[in-house]
Amino acid sequence: MGDELADRPLTEPHPSRLPPQHPGRAAILAAHAAALAAGEAGYLDPDTGLFVLSAGFLARRGTCCGRGCRHCPYLAD
Q1: d(Cα 59, Cα 41) in Å, to the nearest integer?
Q2: Cβ within 8 Å of residue 24, ≥6 positions away
């Protein structure tokens, strides 16, 4: 957990947080991309209905909270 952004686009979550084989990955990434484009803090998860923070919001915070966020932009590859 550091304060430096990981070397990957904000649109791409770390594979440990959203594996490529996740059955809802395409819908999740689409919802996340829409939130990023709109500058919103997050989106409603298409599977669970829970609010998920976007990588953009988390990056603007400036530090990792250590809570295992799906789109954590600080989690190193």
Answers
A1: 11
A2: 46, 47
pLDDT confidence of residue 76: 77
For residue 70, which of 3, 4, 2, 11 has the smallest C-alpha distance? 11
Q: Is the pLDDT of residue 2 over 70?
A: no
Q: What is the pLDDT of residue 17?
A: 95
- Cα 48 to Cα 38: distance, rounded to the nearest angstrom: 21
Nearest to 39 by CA among 57, 24, 65, 21: 57
Q: Could you give the residue ranges of the DSSP H alpha helices within the chain?
A: 25-38, 55-61
